[in-house]
């Protein structure tokens, strides 16, 4: 057990058993984020959602999840990471039951919001627990590779699982399946994760800081996924809500800079490596998430794949990510360093997205889709473990939950932002093409092509951040030498 008590009962075997339990919990959360997308048409038909109200099946979850990640990660440091993880599992599992039995729009949306709360509590502390369980660089790189595989490849598995469950049974089972997984994961977590005690609230809980950051993030995510996506970025509602979110964030920073016992110590941001890694994560995920969303629409609306065929189409991404993350990422990071591994991975992702921007109306999977899946899977399998290593490299043991929550927060904000921007610009391009007399499928394809091209551009921006913000390694390959350790 570590001095912070996060870890496990002692021997090497129990540590890896704990890693499996944590990753199963993470997989359940990641699967749920994408499995719902495939089932949305069935949900709409069954519960009578309009096209605009249907978005809230996804948005309710995203707002709670993205808004609470940072707070949840810090609460794990202060109270108990094991306790926060188990609480999140319980909330998520119970909420899944209510989602599954929902017979009204209101019940499903409320249950999805509660699911987001549970998902934030569960996932926010996982990476922090992993880095304290595996302090040795080589083992840590291997463990982060396993985590990165689950976190990144789980999305495409969710597409396949959603297609199978929706097509073979019905949409209710995409939620019911979480119940046995959540229960079994909690049972094993109680056995392999030792009770721990956080650093405590010291001079008192920073309730105001917690309220400010949660309010800012929730309002920010809401602004991105609702008024910005529906009415545009220059609409008055979007501007006012965006300004309010930024004002809350500024107030939070002021509060944390002056509080005697801040909820989120600002020293975590002093490291250019940690800050740079989070920026890269946000921009890259923005491109990736929008690509997956538009890619699903392309194969369904243009190539006319059904739900199951759609899941199978994206399965190669999972296979490639798994092969690289589980077998090679640790060796590459240990041998060449996280930064040197990160750069070629991002280049491959950008190339894959650029290739996807050339998809034709009469596309053939083996020629026009599969090469993109392989390029992107290779890039993600190489660069995401390196990103996680960099993002956690400056955190002390007492701040590991905060750093874990931060990387998850930037991921969710990037995903929401990428989806809103790419979907909006893609739809605008489709509308323009249709107004010029293009056939429906041609207009759709032109919109998707623009979205893929912009997604590639976002990853190019991430490459620029690597080259300008992150410096080249000069000493040890795993912990970047330019990182100044964060003072406790």
From TrEMBL:
A Pfam family assignment: MFS_1
Family annotation (InterPro entries): EmrB-like (IPR004638), MFS (IPR011701), MFS_dom (IPR020846), MFS_trans_sf (IPR036259)
Organism in which the protein naturally occurs: Herbihabitans rhizosphaerae
Keyword Membrane on entry: yes
Domain named Major facilitator superfamily (MFS) profile: residues: 18-474
Subcellular compartments: Cell membrane
Designated name of the protein: EmrB/QacA subfamily drug resistance transporter
PANTHER family from the UniProt entry: BLR6921 PROTEIN (PTHR42718:SF46), MAJOR FACILITATOR SUPERFAMILY MULTIDRUG TRANSPORTER MFSC (PTHR42718)
């Amino acid at each position: 057990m570590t001095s912070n008590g996060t870890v496990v009962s002692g021997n090497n075997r129990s540590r890896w058993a704990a890693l499996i339990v944590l990753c199963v919990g993470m997989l359940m959360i990641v699967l749920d984020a994408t499995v719902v997308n495939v089932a949305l048409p069935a949900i709409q038909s069954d519960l009578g959602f309009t096209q605009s109200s249907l978005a809230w099946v996804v948005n309710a979850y995203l707002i709670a999840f993205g808004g609470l990640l940072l707070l949840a990660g810090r609460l794990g440091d202060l109270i108990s990471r094991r306790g926060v993880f188990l609480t999140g599992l319980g909330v998520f599992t119970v909420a899944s039951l209510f989602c599954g039995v929902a017979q009204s729009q209101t019940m499903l949306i409320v249950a999805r919001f509660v699911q987001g709360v549970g998902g934030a509590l569960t996932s926010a502390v996982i990476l922090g627990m992993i880095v304290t369980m595996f302090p040795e660089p080589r083992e840590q790189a291997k463990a982060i590779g396993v985590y990165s595989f689950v976190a990144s490849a789980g999305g495409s598995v969710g597409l396949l699982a959603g297609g199978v469950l929706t097509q073979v049974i019905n949409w209710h089972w995409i939620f019911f399946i979480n119940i046995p997984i959540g229960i079994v994961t909690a049972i094993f977590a109680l056995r392999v994760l030792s009770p721990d005690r956080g650093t405590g609230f010291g001079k008192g809980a920073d309730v105001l800081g917690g309220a400010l950051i949660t309010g800012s993030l929730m309002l920010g995510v809401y602004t991105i996924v609702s008024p910005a996506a529906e009415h545009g970025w220059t609409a008055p509602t979007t501007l006012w809500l965006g300004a309010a979110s930024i004002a809350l964030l500024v107030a939070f920073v002021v509060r944390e800079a002056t509080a005697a016992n801040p909820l989120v110590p600002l020293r975590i941001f002093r490291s250019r490596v940690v800050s740079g890694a989070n920026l890269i994560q946000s921009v890259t995920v923005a491109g990736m998430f929008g690509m997956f969303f538009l890619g699903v629409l392309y194969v369904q609306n243009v190539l006319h794949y059904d739900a199951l065929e759609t899941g199978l189409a994206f399965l190669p991404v999972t296979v490639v990510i798994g092969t690289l993350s589980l077998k090679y990422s640790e060796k590459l990071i240990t041998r060449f360093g996280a930064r040197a591994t990160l750069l070629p991975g991002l280049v491959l992702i950008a190339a894959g997205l650029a290739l996807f921007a050339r998809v034709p109306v009469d596309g053939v999977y083996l020629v026009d889709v599969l090469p993109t899946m392989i390029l992107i899977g290779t890039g993600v399998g190489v660069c995401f473990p390196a990103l996680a290593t960099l993002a956690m490299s400056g955190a002390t043991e007492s701040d590991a939950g905060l750093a874990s929550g931060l990387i998850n927060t930037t991921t969710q904000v990037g995903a929401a932002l990428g989806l809103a921007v790419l979907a909006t610009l893609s739809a605008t391009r489709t509308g323009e093409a249709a107004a010029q007399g293009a056939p429906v499928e041609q207009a759709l394809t032109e919109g998707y092509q623009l979205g893929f091209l912009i997604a590639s551009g976002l990853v190019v921006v991430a490459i620029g951040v690597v080259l300008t913000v992150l410096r080249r390694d000069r000493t040890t390959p795993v912990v970047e030498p330019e990182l100044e350790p964060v003072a406790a």
